[in-house]
Amino acid sequence: MNPPRGVGATAVFVAAARAIETGRDDRLFDDRWAGEFVRASGWSPPTEQLDDSSREELTTWVAARTKFLDDFVLDAVVAGCGQVVLLGAGLDTRAFRLNWPLRVTFFELDTAEMVEFKESVLDGASPAEATRITVPIDLREDWPAALRDAGFRPDVPTAWILEGLLAYLPENDVDALMRHVGELSAPGSAIGATITNVDFAAVVDDAPLFRGSPISRREWLSLLHSNGPSDPVAWFDSYGWRATAVPTDELAQRYGRTLPEQSMLRQARPGERWLVSAVRK
Predict the structure, then answer these.
(1) Exposure string (b/e) for 207-239, b if CB count within 10 Å is 16 or more?
(2) Residues 160, 237, 231, CA angle at the centre, nearest 5°?
(3) What is the pLDDT of residues 122-165, one digit of tens each?
(4) Cβ–Cβ under 8 Å, residues 165 and 88
(5) Are strands 190-198 and 158-162 parallel, antiparallel or unpaired?
(6) 84, 96 Cβ separation under 8 angstroms
(7) Best CA proximity match to 132, nearest among 33, 207, 14
(8) Measuring CA to CA, which residue among 15, 7, 194, 187 is closest to residue 91?
(9) Residue 3 to residue 118: CA distance in whole angstroms
């Protein structure tokens, strides 16, 4: 099975960071599949070229956002969300690795290429505590119809996860996606999301992580089509959601992690980053 390319290759980066986090004694989560995805992609992350502080920084953003969204979705299910939808699911394994307090139906939407690669690594595995349904579709297509056809019920409160997704969609597609999510969300629904407001003009030309990777920095930059809002709370409010936004640095500190002042992450993607949780108004 061919490894993911284009936007799909960015999911391998995230899996690599999750694999590194999983190997820590003080890990924030345990994702046993992450390393399998990276190995199946054929990429060996050049972590041996990084010093300890750089390696720590590499995983901090992904580890913090993963932990935040883990907690978000578990809380949403306890609060009554009977469905979870991952838009641009990538190599996410929450359906497998989280201890679901209640039986939940889990929908994962991504391109057919990504779904096929992921399933080839999972090799028939199925989660014990969730009903997992994959929906192969490009989010620029009629994904709401495909989601309904897969068994999604708009009358059931739903927890939506938008992780590392919106920047890869043009602004008009982001607007359409948010409107569709609102139309499909019953009262009691919730959203967990990553929001980045990046200064693309200040992005540096080189970074150790891209060496030998399935995608170059130039290719990665060409995939970024829109920038996040400078005020995530107001932005979500405009779509009918009551949101709380936590800056990445503050969240990392909450989890016992820090990003250095002269951050490699900020050089690679200068700007602001937030983790957002929101409920339907």
Answers:
(1) bbbbeebbbebeebeeebeebbbeebbebbeeb
(2) 100
(3) 999 999 889 999 999 999 999 999 999 999 999 999 999 999 89
(4) yes
(5) parallel
(6) no
(7) 33
(8) 15
(9) 9
* Number of domains within the chain: 1
What is the token pair recorded at 231?
A: 């005020």
Q: Is 204 a member of any domain?
A: yes
- The 3-class secondary structure across 88-125, one letter per residue, is CCCCCCHHHHCCCCCCEEEEEEECHHHHHHHHHHHCCC
User: Looking at the domain assignment, is residue 1 inside a domain?
Assistant: no
Task: Provide Rg for the chain, Cα atoms.
Answer: 18
Domain of 52, in residue numbers: 7-280
Q: List phi, psi (to 5°) of 201.
A: -65, -20
Contact of 104 with 130, CB cutoff 8 Å = yes
Say what the pTM is: 0.90
Decide if 2 is inside a domain.
no
The pLDDT of residue 258: 76
Q: Helix 112-122 and helix 7-22: axis angle, to 10°?
A: 30
Q: Which residue type sits at 247?
A: P
Residue 80 forms part of a structural domain: yes
Give the type of residue at 147: L
Question: Alpha helix (H) ranges present in the chain?
Answer: 7-22, 34-41, 52-78, 94-97, 112-122, 143-149, 171-183, 217-223, 232-238, 248-254, 264-268
| CATH value at residue 137 | 3.40.50.150
> How many residues are listed for the chain in this entry?
281
d(C-alpha 184, C-alpha 143), whole Å: 11
